[in-house]
Amino acid sequence: MFQINENYQKLPGSYLFSTIAKKVAAFSQANPDKQIIRLGIGDVTQPIAPAIIEAMHKAVDEMGVQETFRGYAPDLGYEFLRNAIAKNDYEARGCDIAADEIFVSDGAKSDSGNIQEIFGADVKIAVCDPVYPVYVDSNVMAGRCGDYDANTGMWSNVIYMPCTKENGFVPEFPKENPDVIYLCLPNNPTGTTITKSRLQEWVDYANRIGAVIIYDGAYEAYISEDDVAHTIYECEGAKTCAIELKSFSKNAGFTGVRLGYTVVPKELKCGDVSVHGMWARRHGTKFNGAPYIIQRAGEAVYSDAGKAQLKEQVAYYMNNAKTIKTGLQEAGYEVFGGVNAPYIWLKTPGKMTSWEFFDYLLENANVVGTPGSGFGPSGEGYFRLTAFGSHKNTVAALERIKAL
Ligand code: MLT
Asked: What is the mean pLDDT of residues 365-382?
C-alpha cells in the first residue's frame, strides 16, 4: 500500500480562505435575497489597466504568427521583463540587483510556499503572529513545524513573534535564534509596517545569527510614508541574508492573471553553497516559465502609461482604505493599518472572538471580512477588512456596519 505524506494530516481544517468561502456560500444559499459585500480575501476588483491590456493583446497576436510565436519561456523569465524589474524596482531605488538575480514566476503565493524546499529539513522558522497562513502551512507540509496544539493554535516547532497592539504590531527579535525568518511588510494581515531603520536592524540581526529572511513585499505599492523601505535591499547587507518575493497581483490587479518574481542575490550563501544556484535548479526542474503573454503584460506595468494608470488604481484602493478606516472609527471601533497597506485591522467589539464577529457581520450586515484568529493566535479578537472592493460596495458596507 502506498504511503502518504503524513504531515498533511497534521494541518488543521482547510485553508483559511477556503473555509470562509464555504461559510459564505452556505449563508448565501440559505439567504438568496441578501446582497453580500465581500471584503474578506484580498482579491482586486478593478479591471486590468488599458496599457497592460494593450500589451497582452499585442502578445496574443504575436503568438498566432509564425515569426513571433514563442514556446517555452526561459527558466528565469524573459530578459525584457527581468530588465524592466531590475531597472524600475531596484536600480531606481539605488539597489544593486542584477536581472539574473530575478526569477519570474506565476505569483508570490507559489513562491512563498515553494521557497522552503531549498532549506534543510530541520531548520527552525520564525513567523509573525498573526501571519499569512501559507508560510506556516507550507513548512508543516514539509514536516518542520512539529505538532499543532488546538488549544493555543500554535505549532510546537515554530517560533512565533507576536505583533500586537502593545508592540505597535512590530515584531521583536525572538529569544531563540531562528534559521529562516518570514517578514511580510507592509504586513498582511495587520496592514501595518515598520520603519526602514527597524528593517535595517532585522537585516543586521539575520546576518549576525546566520539566518535568512524571506521578505514578502507584495504590498509595496501601497507604501505612503517616507521612512518605509520599498525593498529589503535598501538595507545594507541584505544581499547576504534576504530573499525577496514580489507580486503583480496587488499593484497591477493580476490576481487572476498570475505573475510574480523572487530575488535571490548571488551573495546569499550557506557556507560555499550558492542559494541562487539552488533556486535556479529548482525553478528549472519544476517550473516551465510564466506565459509569454503575461510576461509582456508585466513589462507594460513599467511603461509610462502603465505606471500612471496603476498609480490611479492604487489611489482608488487607498481611498477605500480611508473610507473603511474613518467609517469604523466613527462607529467607535479601534482600527489599525490602512496607511501603507490595503488592509484594515480592527479590534472586535466587546469580548467577541474573531469568528463570532465574522458571523455577526455576515448575518447582520451581510459583509464578509476575515477573522484575525485565522492568521494566528495573536489575531484573536481582531478582524481584517480589505480595501480591494469597489468604492460603491465599500461605502455601502460601512453604512451597514455603522447602522448595526
Ligand atoms: C489575502 O487575502 O490574504 C491574500 O489575498 C491572499 C493571497 O494573496 O494569496
From this structure: 97
Q: Grid coordinates standing for 187?
A: 504586513
- Residue with CA at minimum distance from ligand 1 atom 3: 42
Query: Nearest to residue 43, comparing CAs of 370, 377, 399?
Result: 370
Report whether residue 42 contacts ligand 1, using a CB cutoff of 6 Å: yes
Greatest extent of the chain over all pairs of C-alpha atoms, in Å: 66
Contact (Cβ atoms closer than 8 angstroms) between residue 248 and residue 298: yes
Within 13 Å of residue 313, how many CA atoms lie on the same side as its CB?
Answer: 25
- 14 pLDDT above the threshold of 90: no
Q: In sequence order, what DSSP letters do the residues of 332-384 get, joined into one string?
A: T--EEE-SSSSEEEEEPSTT--HHHHHHHHHHHH-EE-EEGGGG-GGGTTEEE
Give me 293's grid cell. Answer: 503573454
All cell numbers assigned to 313: 488604481
> Ligand 1 pocket: which of 18, 20, 39, 43 to mutate (most atoms <8 Å of CB)?
43
Q: Are the C-beta atoms of 358 and 371 separated by less than 8 Å?
A: yes
What is the rounded distance in angstroms from the CA atom of residue 375 to the CA atom of residue 384? 10
Residue 378 pairs in a beta bridge with none
Q: Which residue, chain included where needed, has cell 493555543?
A: 152
- Ligand 1 mutation target, pool 24, 105, 111, 132, most atoms within 8 A of CB: 132
State the cell numbers at 154: 500554535
User: What digits encode the pLDDT tens for the residues 167-218?
Assistant: 999 999 999 999 999 999 999 999 999 999 999 999 999 999 999 999 999 9
Helix-then-strand count for the chain, H and E: 13, 17
Residue 134 CA, ligand 1 centroid: distance in Å: 9
Task: Write the pLDDT tens digit of every residue in 73-126.
Answer: 998 999 999 999 999 999 999 999 999 999 999 999 999 999 999 999 999 999
The answer to whether the CB of 260 is under 6 A from ligand 1 is: no
